[in-house]
Design brief:
- The protein is an alpha+beta fold.
- It contains ten helices and 20 strands.
- Helix 8 packs parallel to helix 9.
Length: 449
């Protein structure tokens, strides 16, 4: 095929493919514009998972009437003026592609007003083309309505997921920005029902309570680094060692107010919990990293989801040190006393009818200190020694169920007991080894040759 220059329409749709992946991408770009415009309140409303309708309203500075149409031209931005500005970007947006890309694949209604103008301006676009422009009354700020996303690119539209999935992605983006900017009030409505709202009082913990619930939000530990040690400031909240999840997706990172995916910083948070979490478990955390803009390059990813540090090792150390400090100070590792070896020898565990669980004191919460006691039953041989019984006994418990093949739920006079069965099994093996050591009867087998 002969080489030819693509039309503006095709070029715009290609550019939109990099910026607008799904409805959540639209919400992200519009909310970033609101934040950069100095808004104190941002309201997001969607219908049908954002595929049919997205509306973002803010009380920011707005756009002057003479610049409204210019705002939708490709590579038009108020964030940069020279190439040197790319070395010290302090705003969320800077490329001037978002509005043009969104407008090229949707129907847009843009209403805005700056405070010193008596009336606002309304601009309508379809597929990137202006179809109407007129005066409109509204308070200072901007309201952007996006309808029929990908109406002119059906191949893209059919790849969108269910409304529930798209709503989840939108909620994920908005809650991230609520965490990054707790001083702003964010409201999210899906199909005319409010599903998230932040107070906007500047307290990150209140945002965590709104996102994770009261119990988890109150359990987080606050992270504050010592600014005298480095120019990299680390703040935020992390979970105590007793609170963890099965994957690392609950670790949220921000660099200069921008949500990022960074494998090294995520590993720095995880490494701070070394020896504090069970294998295969990960902490929760919201970690804010702030450093001079010239020390980080944010222009390395089409969606601005990744950054590159001038000194990546320094950023890693700052995050790991700040998180580790709060864990040591606020959630110290309990000292484990060595169990007495004068206890009676414990027989190898052989499960029978009527097993129950006993809690043993002395090893701290790092290990669920549970063990079994086998009652006399058909499978218990009379020549076996009686199991060790702690002086701090629990009453007989009745097993009523199991949760996730991990926890055993039991009922007793005091209420419900939740027992980590894997930790209990480890304790049984530990008791067995101690008993064999006391009897000088450690199990062994003669080698074949």
């Amino acid at each position: 095929m002969a080489i030819r220059v693509l039309s503006d329409k095709v070029a715009s749709q290609i550019a939109a493919g990099e910026v607008v992946e799904r409805p959540a991408s639209v919400v992200k770009e519009l909310v970033e514009n609101s934040i950069d415009a100095g808004a104190t309140s941002v309201q997001v409303e969607t219908r049908e998972g954002g595929k049919r309708y997205i509306r973002v309203v803010d009380d920011g500075r707005g756009v002057p009437a003479t610049e409204v149409e210019l705002a939708f031209r490709r590579h038009s931005t108020s964030k940069l003026s020279t190439a040197d500005d790319l070395d010290r970007i302090a705003t969320l947006g800077f490329r001037g592609e978002a509005l043009a890309s969104i407008a090229s694949v949707s129907r847009v209604t843009f209403v805005t007003r700056v405070a010193d103008e008596p009336v606002g301006t309304l601009l309508r676009l379809e597929g990137g083309k202006v179809v109407a422009q007129q005066e409109s009354g509204r308070p200072p700020g901007t309201a952007v309505t996006i309808e029929d996303l990908f109406f002119n690119v059906p191949a893209r539209r059919k790849f969108l997921r269910t409304d529930r999935t798209e709503r989840g992605h939108i909620g994920g983006w908005l809650t991230r920005y609520a965490m990054a900017y707790p001083e702003l009030r964010f409201t999210l409505s899906h199909d005319e029902r409010i599903v998230f709202q932040s107070a906007g009082n500047g307290q990150l913990r209140d945002v965590l309570v709104a996102v994770y619930g009261l119990e988890l939000g109150a359990a987080f530990l606050e992270v504050v680094s010592d600014e005298r040690e480095t120019s990299i400031h680390v703040a935020g909240f992390v979970s105590p060692p007793a609170l963890h999840r099965a994957n690392r997706s609950y670790i949220t990172l921000f660099v200069n107010g921008r949500w990022v995916r960074d494998t090294r910083l995520t590993y720095a948070v995880i490494q701070a919990y070394h020896t504090l979490l069970p294998t295969g478990r990960y902490p929760l955390g919201v970690v804010m990293v702030r450093l001079p803009p010239e020390e980080v390059d944010v222009n390395v990813h089409p969606a601005k989801a990744e950054v590159r540090f001038r000194d990546g090792d320094a950023a890693f150390r700052a995050v790991q040190k700040a998180v580790r400090r709060v864990l040591v100070e606020r959630s110290p590792v309990p000292l484990a006393s060595r169990p007495s070896t004068s206890w009676p020898a414990a027989a190898p565990f052989r499960p029978g009818r009527g097993e129950r669980f006993e809690r043993l004191a002395g090893l701290g919460p790092a290990v669920e200190q549970m063990r079994f006691e086998a009652r006399p039953a058909d499978t218990t041989r009379p020549d076996e020694a009686a199991p060790v019984v702690s002086s701090d006994r629990l009453p007989p418990l009745r097993v009523v169920g199991q949760v996730g093949t991990t926890y055993v739920v039991a009922e007793g006079p005091g209420g419900m007991y939740l027992i980590d069965q894997h930790a209990a099994h480890e304790r049984i093996l530990f008791e067995r080894l101690l008993a064999e050591r006391e009897r000088a009867a450690v199990a062994s087998q003669t080698m074949l040759e």
